[in-house]
UniProtKB/TrEMBL annotation:
Taxonomic classification: Eukaryota, Viridiplantae, Streptophyta, Embryophyta, Tracheophyta
Main localization of the protein described in the UniProt heading: membrane
Membrane topology: Peripheral membrane protein
Keyword terms: Cell membrane, Coated pit, Endocytosis, Membrane, Protein transport, Transport
Similarity comment: family membership: Belongs to the adaptor complexes medium subunit family.
UniProt GO cellular component terms: clathrin adaptor complex; clathrin-coated pit; plasma membrane
One Pfam family here: Adap_comp_sub
Protein name: AP-2 complex subunit mu
Domain of life: Eukaryota
GO BP of this protein: endocytosis; intracellular protein transport
Signal sequence coordinates: none
Domain MHD: from-to ranges: 197-532
Family matches, as PROSITE patterns: CLAT_ADAPTOR_M_1, MHD
Length: 533
């Protein structure tokens, strides 16, 4: 079911209209009653949204509200509300997906920013994206989402003086029609790209989420990761990415252990006019000389069958697909430690060939030009925690506390973590603090009621401790129990993955046969990394 949006509005936090576009005449200009009010203009539609949604306590509780005969689908991005108005039954998920992709498109044009100021400074460009019907490059046509690909739209709609980071050097060749580009087999990549140096940058970025008890047992742990790519490749290359996931390796081993497949090639035959004493080896050599078969690659069996001509014999060829797969490269193993992982949830970019992934469990794709997100994944089993935190908090009476926190890095000794921050919560009535640390610096932050311990560089397989004495302000009345919030951590560990994910190989094929340079980088960051104390 499509969206069939009647109108789209961009409002600020006060409800003022920044930009709007009417796609249908069933709302806005038609007479409609909403809670007893006749709506016959754009302002009345906005007034209805402002009065019945923005000025109520229900703002933010539900992104879909029905007012009279219209449904308002809204989302807040920064200090801007994007509102889609529909008058009929519509696909809500598709509408919000359109909003998310439209915001990503605007950010690519605005240099990464999307707020009220960016809209005011680029309203001409936004209207061009919303209304460019002549070039068939509008992002929505008659309420239906159309082309939202930055790689394609930047070929036709550009800002003066701003060059698209997705395109290569300007070409004098005429740009093909946008409709043909979008509806083609590879709509996310245009032809004719040329680079002096063909490079591929691959970043594996993971976020570790942890909830650990005060006794050191893991209550909840998972890893969410994404693979980011930046491609500067000429032509239309085919890429194949191999990971050390368990299913993919099992599928690869299954394919290698499978016996040679016997397939009938009906389009290859040889007819001899002469005596029947010809041997099959002579026939094979003749066929190979004609270029029909590659003898070193295939095993051939010949079965004679009589033709209508008594002086002719036709040979049928059975071709065994043996020796077709190239031997694995040195880096195509399970990883340095031989570990395999299980991916729980995987989401791919549209360029990935899902048919080959389902059959071979390999990620094959024709990449877009420039930077894009290839895939996202989640892992819940076999997580390698980069840090262990052992907190000890003692309450000495009603006015003093002793806090000891030991942090141990579990990753390799040759690695190191950057920007390590440990936030230890303390009561609000904290008056004075004193610290002793073996590494880094610590201080009390009254705005968040926490002791903040910062370590700029944390080597692997090492320990660091912090001891603090906290003096509290004595209060009259009964002593209230202090609900201890969990300790929080922030960090970034280069060349380390908490999931154990590794790139086994990254292959690039292009008909011109050029050489490529591949770069792979691993980064692990803290997501919600909490330890109860």
């Amino acid at each position: 079911m499509p969206v069939a949006a009647s109108a789209i509005y961009f409002l600020n936090l006060r409800g003022d209209v920044l930009i709007n576009r009417l796609y249908r005449d069933d709302v806005g200009h038609a007479e409609r009653y909403i809670f007893g009010r006749m709506l016959n203009s754009r302002g009345n539609m906005v007034d209805a949204f402002r009065m019945h949604i923005m000025q109520t306590k229900e703002l933010g509780t539900c992104p879909v509200r029905q007012i009279g005969g219209c449904s308002f689908l809204y989302m807040r991005i920064s200090n801007v509300y994007i509102v889609i108005v529909v008058s009929s039954n519509a696909n809500v998920a598709c509408a919000f997906k359109f909003v998310v992709e439209a915001v990503a498109l605007f950010k690519s044009y605005f240099g990464g920013a999307f707020d009220e100021d960016a809209i005011r400074n680029n309203f001409v460009l936004i209207y061009e994206l919303l209304d460019d019907i002549d070039n068939c490059t509008e992002i929505m046509d008659f309420g239906y989402p159309q082309n939202l690909s930055p790689e394609i739209l930047k070929l036709y709609i550009t800002q003066e003086g701003v060059r698209s980071p997705f395109s290569s050097k300007p070409s004098e060749k005429p740009v093909p029609n946008a409709t043909l580009q979008v509806t083609g087999a590879v709509g996310w990549r245009r032809e004719g790209l040329v680079y002096k140096k063909n490079e591929v940058f691959l970043d594996i970025v993971e976020s570790v989420n942890l909830l650990m008890s005060s006794k050191g047992s893991v209550l909840r742990c998972d890893v969410t990761g994404k693979i980011l790519m930046k491609c500067f490749l000429s032509g239309m290359p085919d890429l194949k990415l191999g990971l050390n996931d368990k299913i993919g390796l099992e599928k690869e081993a299954q394919l290698k252990s499978r016996p040679a497949k016997r397939t009938w090639t009906s389009n290859i035959h040889v007819t001899w006019y002469g005596p029947f004493s010809r041997s099959s080896s002579e026939i094979c050599q003749a066929v190979a000389a004609l270029g029909a078969l590659d003898l070193p690659t295939y095993d051939i069996e010949l079965t004679p069958s009589l033709c209508s001509c008594s002086a002719a014999r036709r040979w049928r060829f059975w071709v065994n697909e043996r020796g077709m797969s190239t031997p694995p490269a040195k880096d195509e193993g399970k990883g340095k430690n031989g570990k395999t992982i299980e991916l729980d949830d995987v989401t791919f970019h549209q360029c990935v060939n899902l048919t080959r992934f389902n059959s071979e469990k390999t990620v094959s794709f024709v990449p877009p030009d420039g930077e894009f997100e290839l895939m996202k994944y989640r892992i819940t089993e076999g997580v390698n925690l980069p840090f262990r935190v052992l907190p000890t908090i003692k309450e000495l009476g009603r006015t003093r506390m002793e806090i000891n926190v030991k942090v141990k890095s579990v990753f390799g000794a040759k690695m190191f973590a950057l920007g390590v921050v440990v936030k230890v919560p303390v009561p609000k009535q904290t008056a004075k603090t004193s610290f002793q640390t073996t590494s880094g610096k610590a201080k009390y932050n009254a705005s968040i009621d926490s002791l903040v311990w910062k370590i700029r560089k944390f080597p692997g397989q090492t320990e660091a401790t912090m001891s603090a004495e906290v003096e509290l302000i004595s209060t009259m009345g009964e002593k209230k129990s202090w609900n201890r919030p969990p300790i929080q951590m922030e960090f970034q560990v280069p060349m380390f993955t908490a999931s154990g994910l590794r790139v086994r190989f990254l292959k690039v094929w292009e008909k011109s046969g050029y050489n490529t340079v591949e770069w792979v980088r691993y980064i692990t960051r803290a997501g919600s990394y909490e330890i109860r104390c």
